[in-house]
């Protein structure tokens, strides 16, 4: 197998897993009102109340401008609120609302119900997979830094 085909099969494997996760969750049932990134933001805010948009963007591996659009939709949906920091009036902090907390909990429940079969894979195999993912990220980040 040539290097090109090997890379193709690796990337295609990631694509297939990603598609299956998407289908298992967001396409299967219309009762979920959040996108995956909105769910991630609500989950972060639940764990880390009153953090700024830049920190949320960093935790989601997104740019600040892209995250601003996600936050705007969550604010309009009344899932989160913006407030000024008491220590720095220029800073805007994000907080999950009661409505946001409820939809995050329900989405989390459905998510776990649908993807928990992954946990049937032996723990050692999952740890190995995550270690390889970390190696791949490090290799690709190193490549990115060498080619601005």
From TrEMBL:
Residues 1-138 form the HTH marR-type domain. Keywords: DNA-binding, Transcription, Transcription regulation. InterPro entries: HTH_MarR-typ, MarR/SlyA-like, Tscrpt_reg_MarR-type_CS, WH-like_DNA-bd_sf, WH_DNA-bd_sf. GO terms for molecular function: DNA binding; DNA-binding transcription factor activity. GO terms for biological process: response to stress. It comes from the Bacteria. This is Winged helix-turn-helix transcriptional regulator.
